[in-house]
Design goal:
alpha+beta; 333 residues; 7 helices; three-stranded mixed beta sheet; Immunoglobulin-like; four-stranded antiparallel beta sheet; 3 domains
Length: 333
């Protein structure tokens, strides 16, 4: 019995020893593999990583939305982020910026960002972005993102907003209260208008009365002074000056002898003067001569000489003096 128990203990000891030896061998092989294995190379399948996202992808009108475009490039390659601000449609770009390039985790990292705002509710699409580069084998490659969708909700789109909307009341006509002082204002305006009208009538009547008390010679001499004040003689505009003399002469005949000379031709004026009782033969001849000599200047465009113009002016003054004397004599008789 002792021999069998001793054999059993020996067999168990051998089994334990073999188990421990196997464990030690396994651990040694494992450690040896880790120490001899070369480091894992970086993933060369994506030398350029390009991402684009909108934060947040769902917002309300007026809320800012940030559109970020990130580029990570292997240091052995050359690629640059493009400017896409001009391709963003529907949003207002309120701010923008760029970060990098800088080295991060063994790659060249850079980023562009745009702060956007929308004024209308709806679905918006931010453009896809692509970057072109040349790989290590000299081939042209491109990295591209997908379009980014952004949903803009109305400011009334939240739950409970409908409770803030109420039906409009029907339109009512505004009541305008008429101030109590408006009759006094109306009366004041009418009084002022009446006074203005009265002043106009008064001054016109006063002028007519003054004109009635003035002799035709006084009126004609005033018109002659006004004509000379125009400076036509000094400017050598003799034809216009003679035209003015003729007009003054005709109005004088009309005022003194009561013939419509301002509206008649020379022949009609002479015919009317022949019928006038207070018009002697010498005055008729002087009037005929003055009218017939000045008519060619008026109607045929003849240019008079300075001495002729001065002569006609003196003959007009002399005619009025003789006519006034004749009138005084007839009244005295």
């Amino acid at each position: 019995m002792r021999s069998e128990c001793s054999n059993d203990r020996d067999a168990a000891g051998r089994v334990i020893l073999v188990f421990l030896s196997c464990c030690i061998l396994f651990v040694a092989c494992t450690l040896g593999d880790d120490e001899s294995a070369p480091p894992e190379p970086p993933d060369a399948s994506t030398p350029v990583e390009l991402t684009a996202l909108a934060d947040p992808a769902k917002a309300r009108i007026g809320d800012p939305v940030t559109f970020r475009i990130t580029l990570e490039v292997d240091p052995s390659l050359s690629a640059e982020l493009p400017e896409v601000g001009s391709r963003i449609q529907g949003f207002r770009i309120v701010d923008m910026g760029k970060e990098g390039p800088k080295k991060r985790e063994g790659r060249i990292w850079s980023q562009r960002w745009y702060e956007l705002k929308a004024d209308l509710a709806g679905s918006y699409i931010l453009p896809a972005v692509s970057v072109h580069y040349t790989d290590t084998e000299g081939k042209d490659q491109a990295a591209e993102t997908k379009q980014v969708f952004v949903e803009i909700e109305s400011v009334l789109g939240q739950e409970g907003d409908e409770q803030d909307i109420r039906d409009l009341k029907s339109l009512e006509k505004a009541k305008r209260e008429i101030p109590g002082w408006w009759p006094f204002l109306l009366v004041g305006i009418l009084v002022v208008l009446g006074l203005l009208a009265g002043f106009i009538v008064y001054f016109r009547r006063k002028k007519r009365i003054q004109e009635a008390h003035r002799t035709p010679e006084e009126i004609a001499m005033e018109e002659l002074e006004n004509l000379e004040a125009t400076g036509l003689m000094e400017e050598a505009r003799y034809r216009e000056y003679v035209f003015g003399l003729s007009l003054i002469f005709r109005r004088y005949l009309e005022g003194r002898f009561h013939v419509p000379a301002a509206e008649q031709t020379t022949e009609e004026i002479l015919a009317s003067l022949r019928r006038a009782k207070n018009f002697d033969k010498a005055l008729k001849e002087a009037a005929r001569s003055f009218l017939e000599e000045t008519d060619p200047v008026k109607y045929r465009g003849l240019e008079p000489q300075p001495d002729e113009t001065e002569t006609w002016r003196n003959r007009l003054v002399s005619f009025m003096e003789r006519a006034a004397e004749t009138e005084d004599i007839q009244e005295a008789a």
